[in-house]
Amino acid sequence: MSVRGFPSKETVLRLKEQYPPGTRVELICMDDPYSKLKPGDQGTVSFVDDIGTIHINWDSGSSLGAAYGVDMIRKL
C-alpha cells in the first residue's frame, strides 16, 4: 500500500496488465451492502483506474467496480 491506503503506482500498473479491457472475471466477494451482485456473478473488465479500482460491466447490467484491497474477483 502507498499513501493513504491507495496502492502504489507499481501495483496499479500490475493490475492494468493483469486485467486489460475485455478480460472476463467472476466475483468472489464484494464489501458493499447496497450492491445486488453476489459471488459467482460474471462480467467484463472495461478499465482499471489510477487508484486500482477494476471497473467491470457485469452481465447482470451493473457497472460497479471492484475496489483494490477490499473486493475479490478472479479471472476466467
Explain what this protein looks like in three dimensions:
Strands 3-2-1-4 form a four-stranded antiparallel beta sheet. The chain contains one helix and four strands, in the order αββββ. Helix content is 13%, strand content 29%. It has a single domain (9-75), classed as SH3 Domains (SH3 type barrels). The model has no long low-confidence stretch (mean pLDDT 93). The longest helix is centred in the first third of the chain and has 10 residues, at 9-18. With 76 residues, it is α+β, with helices and mostly antiparallel strands. It has one helix at 9-18, and strands at residues 24-29, 42-48, 54-58, 72-75. A hairpin with a 5-residue loop joins strand 2 and strand 3.
Could you outline the blueprint of secondary structure elements for this entry?
Layout: H1 9-18, E1 24-29, E2 42-48, E3 54-58, E4 72-75
Antiparallel strand pairs: 1-2, 1-4, 2-3
How many strands, what sense, and barrel or not for the largest sheet?
A: 4 strands, antiparallel
- CATH topology-level fold name: SH3 type barrels
Evaluate the radius of gyration: 12 Å
Ranges where pLDDT stays below 50 over 5 or more residues in a row are none
Which CATH architecture would you pick? Roll
Mean pLDDT: 93
CATH class: Mainly Beta
CATH homologous superfamily annotation:
SH3 Domains
Estimate what percentage of residues fall within beta strands. Answer: 25-35%
Structural class: alpha+beta
What string, H for helix and E for strand, traces the elements in order? HEEEE
Distance between the termini: 26 Å
Number of domains: 1
Order of strands across the main sheet: 3-2-1-4
Count of beta strands:
4
Shape verdict: globular
What is the count of DSSP helices, taking H or I runs of 4+ residues?
Answer: 1
In helices, the fraction of residues equals 10-25%
